[in-house]
Structure formats: structure tokens, C-alpha cells
User: What shape does this take?
Amino acid sequence: MKLRYLSLLFIFTLATTSIGMVQEEPDFSVWYDVAAFKMADNKATYYEIYLSIAQNDLTPRQIEEGYEVAYIANLQLQYQKTGETVVDESWEQIKTVQDSTQLRLNMPILDQIDLVLFPGQYSATLTVKDKYAERQAIYVDTLDIPEFNDNELLLSNIQFSSLVESSEEESEIVKNGLLIVPHPSRLFGEGVGLPLLYFYVEIYNLGVEEGKKGTFQADYQIVDFSGKTIKSFPIQNVTAYGPSAILASAIKLENVPLGNKYFLSIKITDPLTGKSAARREPFHVFQGVDQLIAKDREEFYIPDLTEENEPGYYGQAFHHFNERDIQLYKSLSFIGKRQFLIDFWENLDPTPGTPVNEFFNENAQRFLFATKEYGYSNVPGWRSDRGRVFILYGQVSEIDREYFSKDFAPYEIWVYNDLGDHISISKETRTTYSLPEDDIYLLGKAAYFVFGELNNDGNYYLIHSNVDGELKSIDWRGDLKKYEEGHIFHSRRQGQDSDEIQIGTND
Assistant: This one.
């Protein structure tokens, strides 16, 4: 196996179901996954890093052979204990096709990077740039490299794959005579054309002597996030040749209910020592629409959905999506998107089992009102900052409007009296910033949002709120003065979909 002392992931590890912090709004979706394996000397850990970018997310360029898309990636890695930069590497990946129509397909460009790292914590920054356009995605995170030992029964990470088969080739994606095609999104099911979930895992420190033949027991299940077993499989007796072994298999997902996330749980038992070890890691399942979507559910949530009007249905749910939901949704086929939207609203139903989804109905009313009332130029109201806040938080308790001040740009302050649990500006914060104690908007008695018409374009941009997770600008009055003086304002709200939702920008 080819070794390169370079990594990609550390940034998005599904083993912990978390994505690294986005330093800048990503211009395209990047899927990452990682698997850690034990090395013979135990002094370092072997890492395989998997990267996937949809070719139709990149900008094509015509060449003599046809067309190509490409990205340039850079990884900077610092060892936190010493602050030393141990990796600062760049590489390029190119995909070439003969026909431009092939570039419109949602086909992944896969990359695998192998490395050896000593255990410990590292700070990592990953930058991926579209080679032929000013587009990029930047992520930062902390990487915790695990340590393996010889004293206890251990498992590697579970490597999820789109295909596992025997192979005599020498390749980065061949391990122990098996071709293992990386599948960084961990997204499976009929909706994405992958009815089988393939996986590969290594087992270490069995009681079998080196060069001898023995067995171990493998018990794996699919469980949901509450711990409920969704699908179980018969316990298998697997042959091991020595203290290390592998387990590779394919799981049929035809009876797995539609759901956002599941865990693949694997338990290994060594009959020679009586010891057991387990690992579980998350994945996603989207089944075929004919199999799992009842007609009444489809008509309730997405009546007359077509590829042409799909963005409108997406918009109704968009402000409830997190970054991972957006990334996942974009990677789906049209059928997969239908399933995602139905399941998304079903999961938010406060009274499941009843014929009415109150949350969906309320959101639909808010969406229509926001679209009508808060639009500007050619931008529908639901895409605006005021529209987003109205959709997420509902009817405003009171609005303080100031449109004709000589000192400030026009602004509105929306006050919510029933969001007290979400207020995040404390007395200590007011003291630190020398904020006036008699300011009604800083007393912590109500939640509020400050919007300013900062670019004279008819749109009121969110510049400050005391609600958890919202944009903070303690000196928001100064912001209103500053932009009144002619500065161009660009929305600083994080979490928006830059490809489809242009909120608060002036580019």
C-alpha cells in the first residue's frame, strides 16, 4: 500500500457525527471520512483519509481530449503540544471526460490519502479550491489521533464502502486482497442507488497465536439513535489466522425504515480469552420512494413536486436545515430529495400518529407570510433575514421601527417576549463591554433582533440578536452609524446556503 505522510480529514469525521467548523461559507459540498488502523510497532497510527466531491459541483474547462474539472487541496496540520507545523501540503485531483454532458452527472471524484501520525491532538485547516473558478471550501478542526496497544481486544474504525470485492491489484484502495471503494458520505439506500451497505473493519489482539488458525464471533446490528435495534443479523463465526483479522461484509437495507441516521454496531467476541470489544458508527439510509412513501404522506408534504418546482419545497424547509442537512440534500437524486423532505417533516411532527402535522402547517403559513411581506428587489421574502427570523420564531411581540433618524440607518428591532430561555447576553457581558444597564434591549427580559437597511436596497439585514446561535454585534448602534456613512454591508450570518440562498449580500 502506498504511504503518503499527508492527510485530508481530521475535519469531518462521521465517527463522531460532527463536521469541522466552517471558517468561510463553502461554495460547494465536500464529503470526508476517516478510518484509523493499528500499526505493528504501536508507536504510530495508520490513517486512511477519504474525500469525495461531486464532479458537477466543479467548474469545467475544455481541453483537447474533451473536458476536465479539477480541485486543488491544501492541508496544514499543527501538533498542539508543541505548536509545530508537521504538515503543509498541497495536491491536485483532475477528472477528464470526452462529452460535456457527462459533467452534469452527480458522479463523485474520489481521493484517498494514507498517512502515519503519532497519537495526540492536532489542529488542522483544510482548503479545497475549484481550479477553474474563484470558489472554495475551508474547514478547521481539532484532530485527536488514537493510540492502539497490544493488551486488549481492539477494533479499527469501520470503513464504509460502496463496493468490497476480491482483488489481486496493487492499489491504495486494496487492503488484504480486498478492493474497498471509499464512500465518504456514508449515504446508502435505493434513493441513492446503493441498496447494499458495504463495510470493512480490522480486529486486533485476538488470543490466536501468530501463524495459527482460530475463530472469533461477530455480532452486528443496525440501531437508531435512541438505541433501538432496527435490524439484527445472526452471529457469525469468522476464521482468524493469528492475533489480527478482518471482517468485511455487505448488508441489505431493504427492510430498514426510512430515517435520517442509524448506527452500524459491531461486537467482536474472542472465545479463547472470553474478551469482547465493540464499535458503532453512524450512516444514513434513504429507501426507494415506491417502497416507503405512502401516497397520502406524499400528497400532504410535497403535492405535485417536480424537478422544476423542487427549489420552492426546499425553501420551505431550508431555514430548519443545519449544514449537514444541506450538504446531504444536495448530494441526493430527485427521488432521494422527495424522500428526504417527507422524512424531514415527519421527524418534526409534534403529534406523530395523528392525521395533522402541526409544525408543518405552522411553518407553511409562516413561509407564505414571509415570502409576501419581506421580499426586496427580485428576492422573495423567505430568503431575507427578516423572513428567516419570522419563519423560525413566529409572530413578533412588538416592533420598534426607526426609518427617518438623522443618526442611524433605517432599522427595526423585533422583540419576542416568549423566547427568554434562548437569551445569551449576560450581565457579565454587559459589564465587559460597558453597556448601559437601563437599555431595554440588553436587560435580558426579552429576545430581540436588530435589522438595518444598510445598503439602501430595501432589504433589512440582521446585524445583532441576543438569541443563542444568532449573529452578535454588541455595538450594533455603531454598526448602524457606520453603514449610514456609506460602507457596503455584507451579511455575516453563518449557516446559509451560498449556492442557492443569497441572503444579505451585495456582490
